[in-house]
């Protein structure tokens, strides 16, 4: 009892305080909510623009690593909208994939490579085309005529590999274009450096961190621009073979692209494989690029919302400049590539009312480098296996022989020889008792052959169009 009695006086002395509550810091009024009064202009919602998915940024990063024409010019990777996503995605791939998997840098470069399905007289069923190979890509994506399904683009791949330099071909020499590309990248770096400077002067730590990470990422991209990160290797042994081979690509949007070249040329093209160079310096540049790009992507959102409105606007200006500069750099690179890769043979055979007209013109009515001599359309399942079409291909092969003999030695009466080949074709395909539809088809093929050969040897394209326009048969065969 003595212990309890000891605390009774203390409890009695606290009673008045508990009753009145005079010594506790309770608020005397009700809740009072007020909005922050901030008159500064802000662009917080636009912070997401820095990390928006941008296909052009993905393609630019792939071109940065591949540098297909590094001997002629260096591709600059600008800090455009979405430009930090490729390094961040590549870093994530490094952290999540197995060490024995395809190198993430090669996966990133795959954005620039598209595989087109082909039918060929070799074992290959797909051929790679680089989007940054503007010359080849533009030919494959030629503009169709009104008869898109009957258009043919013939590309001689042997000539396309020619590296002869043609200076001032397009009105812009080599050095001005090269300097322009480097100036585009240099201005990008100057703008980022200016951002760091103004961040220090205005004591904006958030802006300083953001511009610093972007400047470091630009520096890493510059290192990669002048380094060989990826080499294109050709796997397997290629046996030299001068015999012309063909690969045919039928476009989903209409039109047929025929790649012609020696067996070794097409085989080397089909076997091309990008390979990441694992030298210490290259590996350092690669990780430097990925880490700075990832930090820049994170800072784009984390720092942007805390920056001054003026610094936010400056950062968005850098993104806009970089995005526009990338488009300009693409046009400059296209001109430089056209001026440096050399002449090559290609032929567009369009405005064909029928498919047979296109095949015949592409076989006997184009320049020798693009003639489709020996292309077995039936074996590739590009024509029905009808006796009439087999006879047509034999006729065209015979005409090709006459053309080659005339071009090598001269002294061949081409008109007479061609007419003799056509007569033999009609005799073989239209014996007595042949159905009228087959006779009409054979006669149409004969006329189309005369038109194609007449166009090559003295006729005009306008005359051929006039002849074709008068025909009533507009089938696609």
Structure summary:
This protein has 477 residues and is α+β, with helices and mostly antiparallel strands.
Describe what this molecule looks like in 3D.
The protein is α+β, with helices and mostly antiparallel strands and 477 residues long. It has 2 domains: 46-340, no CATH class; 354-469, no CATH class. It is built from 16 helices and 9 strands. Strands 2-6-7-4-9 form a 5-stranded mixed β-sheet. A hairpin with a 5-residue loop joins strand 6 and strand 7. Helix 3 packs across helix 10, helix 13 packs antiparallel against helix 14 (414-429) and helix 15 runs antiparallel to helix 16. Residues 31-37, 162-172, 455-464 and 470-475 have low confidence and may be disordered.
Task: Based on the model shown, name its key terms.
about 55% helix; alpha+beta; 2 domains; elongated; two-stranded antiparallel ribbon; 16 helices; about 10% strand; 9 strands; disordered C terminus; about 475 residues; five-stranded mixed β-sheet
| Outline | elongated
Tell me, rounded to a whole number, the average pLDDT.
82
Question: What can be said about the biggest beta sheet?
Answer: 5 strands, mixed
The helix-and-strand class reads: alpha+beta
What is the overall number of helices? 16
Our count of domains comes out at 2
C-alpha-based Rg, rounded: 35 Å
Placed side by side, the strands forming the largest sheet appear as 2-6-7-4-9
Number of strands: 9
The topology string of helices and strands comes to: HHHHEEEHEHHHEEEHEHHEHHHHH
Strand content: 5-15%
* Percent helix: 40-55%
Low-confidence runs of at least 5 consecutive residues: 31-37, 162-172, 455-464, 470-475
Separation of the first and last Cα atoms: 117 Å
